[in-house]
Structures are given as C-alpha cells and as structure tokens.
Amino acid sequence: MFKKKYDFIVIGSGIGGLSIAALLANKEKSICLIEGNKFIGGYSSTIQVKGYSFTHGVKYLYGCGPQNPIARFLKELNLEKKIKFNSFSQDCYDLIHIPGKDVRIPFGVKKYRNRLIKLYPEHKEGLTKYFDTYEKIFKELRLNKFLPDKKYILLHPLKHRTLFKFEKTTTQEFLDSFDFPMDLETILAGQIGNLALPPKEASLIGHAGMVVFYCNGAHFPAKGMKHFNDELVKIISSCEDSEIVCNQFVKEIHIDRDNSYVVTEKDKKIYGRNIISNIDPSQTLMMVKGAKKPKFEKALKYKYSDTFFQVFLGLKDIDLKKYGFGKWNTWFHQDIGVNKEYYALMKRNDFKHSVSFIGVPSILTDKNMLAPPGCATMEIITIVNYHYFKKLYEKDRKKYNSIKRQIAELFIDFLEKHYIPNIREYIEVKEVWSPIDIEKTFRTVKANMVGSAFNTDNISLDRITWKTPFKNLFFIGATSTMPGITGIITGSLRLYDELI
Ligand SMILES: Cc1cc2nc3c(=O)[nH]c(=O)nc-3n(C[C@H](O)[C@H](O)[C@H](O)COP(=O)(O)OP(=O)(O)OC[C@H]3O[C@@H](n4cnc5c(N)ncnc54)[C@H](O)[C@@H]3O)c2cc1C
Prior knowledge:
Layout: E1 6-11, H1 15-26, E2 31-34, E3 46-49, E4 52-55, H2 69-76, E5 85-87, E6 94-98, E7 101-105, H3 109-119, H4 124-143, H5 150-155, H6 161-166, H7 171-176, H8 182-188, H9 204-215, E8 219-221, H10 224-237, E9 243-245, E10 250-254, E11 260-264, E12 269-277, H11 281-287, E13 288-289, H12 297-300, E14 307-315, E15 329-332, H13 338-348, E16 357-359, H14 361-364, E17 376-384, H15 386-395, H16 397-418, E18 427-433, H17 435-442, E19 473-475, H18 485-499
Parallel strand pairs: 1-2, 1-12, 2-9, 6-15, 10-13, 12-19
Antiparallel strand pairs: 3-4, 5-8, 6-7, 10-11, 11-12, 14-17, 14-18, 15-16, 16-17
Helix pairs in contact: 1-10, 1-18, 3-4, 4-9, 15-16
C-alpha cells in the first residue's frame, strides 16, 4: 500500500497539514499525509447532517483580500478561480452586544474608532491613542509578514519599537492605562473570545493583531470550508507519488538522517526523508523514539488556550435576517466586564451567563451551500473549563451527558428569549460538542481552541516556529505559526519557502 519512501510524511490533516502537503505535492514532492480520523481537516473539517454543514473552527477569516497571505497561497496552487470568498458586512462584521447597547464593528480601524468616539466623545483622546497603538502593532507585524521573525526583529529594533514596548503587556494592562468606563472596556475586549483567553491573560500584541486584521476585512469561503479543503485534497491526490491515509493515528516517530519513519497505532510503518508534524509540538517531541533529543525545553512547556462548548443548529424554513441576523457574527455579553464573565464560567461553571458567540455561516456562503433551500445554520460557542468536563466525564457519565444536554437547552432558551421565539419549532438538526468530544476526536491537548495560549509567554520573540531539534522534522499548525486559518497557512507558505 505504501510507497517505499516518501519525500515528506505529514502527520495530521488539519489546515496546517493540508496546506503544506498541497504546496509540496504541487511541486511534485511525494507526500504521505496521515490522518488519525476517518475524515480530513481537523478543526477545519465539516460535519454534514441531513443537508446541513457545520465547520468546527471557521467562523470568519482574515487576510483574504489581494496582497494578503491567502491570495498568495491560492495563486501558488492555481486555485484563485476556484476558491472565492464572500465578505462580511462592511458596516458590521462583528456585532458586540452589551447590556443596553449593540455596537456594530465596521471594516476600517479609523471607522471603528470614530464610531466609538461618537458613543464616548469624552474619551476621544484615549480612543485615538488606543487605536493608534493597535495600528502600530499591526504595522510592525506586517513588516514580519505576520509571523514575527526573531532574527529580523533583533536586527531592526527601531522598526519594531511597539512590539518591544508591549511584548510583556496584557490587553487588560493596556486598557488600565486609560480611564475608560467598564462598558467601553467590554466593547473593546468584546471579540477576545477569538483568542480563548480573557483580557487579563491575553497578549496585547495578539489582541491588536486579531482586531486590526479582522477590521481590514473579514471573509467566509463562498462555497464553505469543505470545498476549500476538498480542493487541497484534490491537489495532493492528483500527485502520482502522493497519498492520503486516513484512520491511522501515528504513535511513534523515528528520526534518522535519511530514513525516518513513523509507526501508526495499527503498527504500519511509513518511511520518509522528512517528517512534518501538524500535531502539537510538545506531543510530537514526546513521540520521537530512539534518537537523542537535544534540549528543547521551551517546546515542551507552554500553557494551552482554553477549550470551548459548541452547539450547531440546522433550522428549517426560516429566514434569519428577519430575526436580526445578517452578514456578521454576534458577541453577546450578558454582563459588563469580560474578565468577570470569563472567570464566572471558569471558576463557577455559570452556564446561565455563558452564551458568547453566535455565528450564522449559511448567510455568508453562496446560496444553499450549507443548508437546504429556505433553511439556515447557526453556531453558538462559549469558552468553558476543561477540567470540569473531564472530571464529570470520568466520574459520572450519566451526569456528564445530562449536563451536556442542559447546556445545549440553555443556549436554545437564550436564543428563544433574545432572538427567535419558538425556535424549537425550526430545529431540524442539533449537534452538541463538549470539550470531551473534541478531545476524543481530534486529540488536541485539553481540547484547546487555538493551540498554545495567546498570552505574553507564547506571543513573544521566542515563539515556537517550524524549527525542531532535528534537521528533517518540522512543525506546522496553530502553536508553531500564528493561530487561525490564515496564520497557519502563512506558516505553511514560510515553511514551503524554506523547504523548496
Ligand atoms: C470553536 C473554534 C472556532 C474557531 N474560529 C476560527 C475562525 O473563525 N477563524 C480562524 O481563522 N480560526 C478559527 N479557529 C482556529 C482554527 O480553526 C484552528 O487554529 C485551526 O483549524 C487548527 O489547525 P491545525 O492545522 O493547527 O490543526 P488541527 O485542526 O488541530 O488538526 C490536527 C489534525 O491532526 C490529527 N491528529 C492528531 N493526532 C494525530 C496522530 N497522532 N496521528 C495522526 N493524526 C493526528 C487530528 O485528527 C487533526 O485532524 C477556531 C477554532 C475553534 C476550535
């Protein structure tokens, strides 16, 4: 079944594994892409139920416009005509709800700033300084093509003054340097769920990068993420010497100068000159057998981003636009104060206040791509405490199942109260994913949402890159690039430039 020796073995078919495998296969390198699950894509995979499609980890994409990393990626693979993107609303790509107020975040940092100045004129000076700093951080990240390059930054310290100044600053510390009222702070930190960390723990640089990047344009694949991934699969499969092998979790990696191999849990040995791992860097190094591991302590010790609880709904015979939804995501904050909201969930598992993100992807794709005609999809997500679910699952399976059901019902009650009366009459499909389901399916450590935590330790000059202690082993994925589909694809392009 397996070719004797591949140029590259790629372990894991998340967007990192898929994108680097497609780039290399396109250059006629022989690839064996090995995926543990029966399906491709990891967090970017799509679940299909009764004509509805749901993607775990893609709500919107940044960097899809011209001269952005995705454009280069598609051009490299000749896919520019096949993969198109639809834009979120220019006037509102994210809607932040706080008690008594809806704030629509438009494209354009200046527009966003001016909108907030209109709401809080007494904070004009502070808001101007706040957004100027965010733009400076973004500009310096752009100089690095969005993956901070330690060598380049150290060689050009004057070009990176803002990154140096704020390397150890959290979003909250930065907010504290102003006298913004709590409701304005809540709005400014309202999208921080994207980082799966609260303002008190999130890196200012990570937060600024995310906010400005999305303000520069937010898109969704016009035919859905499955189509995007399928096109990459086609490229790999059409390369004569390459294969995609599913349903084989890798358990060991053996590194040799020119004859490395991996062993799967089904005891298959697959040989390759190089190995690229799309699984967690720390887990990858633990799998390496029989070679002396040079010291690489940093790679083994980092905090992970938090995990999440997600409910997907397939709604029949409904027009969501009539219920206040549109080409935007909604961040629903039931209280003022994002840290307070976050710790209530983490420490007290207060699910009553937990709905935080509502996405309506079927509004964003071309017609009928994600739902049957006249129907719609909706996705509700909140960050939760991994240990709570893990303990529950291990100690009392019945209670775990009951709590999982209860949380889903709470989410639906919430939608009924705030948006769609009688929503239950429209529900045709309900898919509920707890951190345990995620962990069991994708084997991500503690079911983390975006790889290592977006804190100041990890978003730093010492961030892990594709480099490992071994010449022919490489990392690709959320923890070794900048997380998010675009960040990871940017990392694949950088690794590709290195390897080709
Ligand atoms: C709820 C949620 C919402 C998100 N929203 C967005 C968003 O709107 N926009 C955005 O850009 N990003 C978003 N993200 C982040 C983004 O989806 C992820 O960062 C990205 O998909 C991770 O890709 P990856 O390549 O690192 O690997 P993963 O997706 O983690 O894939 C790793 C693959 O490796 C496989 N695997 C694991 N162990 C083994 C093994 N031993 N052998 C073989 N295979 C193995 C897994 O099955 C999996 O397929 C979101 C994430 C989540 C969870």
